[in-house]
Amino acid sequence: MAKHGCLKKIFIALIVLGLFSVAILFGVGYTGYKSAITTTPLPIKIAEVQSDEDYLPVEEISPYFLKDIVAVEDKRFYEHSAIDIIGLVRAVATNIANQSLTEGGSTITQQVAKNLYFTNAKSFTRKIAEVFVAHDLEKAYTKDEILEIYTNIIYMGHGCYGIKEASNTYFHTEPINLTFAEAAVLAGIPQAPSRYNPIDDPEKSAQRTQGVLNILKENGITESNGE
Length: 227
Hints:
By secondary structure, the chain is an all-alpha fold. 66% of the residues lie in helices and 0% in strands. The protein is globular.
């Protein structure tokens, strides 16, 4: 009985220690979030992004690309809020099965938050701060507005930031004129910009594009209904 009581106390102590650690992580993450938005409030940060000469409204971006990037990066984008619990659980399960961090589970809104305020350094506290910013984004902007911001700031490889630079660089055309095939190529780049862009690694880009086309097919997106 004494041994059982000791084990119970150890178990309770571990739970308390775990909860305390989580509380500290959330506290540090929240502090990072408050520091970021206090230094540059969200509306000012968005205005800075929109003032770029290459910034495009969503109406000037190919519907092919818009549908493709949602299908590839966050297919439940229009259904969830700042975070996607279903997608997060799926990503954790995949990572456990693969015994590696192959999936991150970040929503498009979280990616916008990260690109606006934070670095790519992986840490729990940064992810927590990112979620707080993502929550602010979802409260202040519509889904289409968030998607518009996302397509204008994501890194697309070979020194290109945003859909306009990528479209001009890789296909010498404006984003609104992207074909179904070209849009599929570009939609595959954000996952690994240095590997999947068609200039730096045409072979991997082609492989990735085929993967994107498979995803589109699974989601019922074709050239005829993609517009």
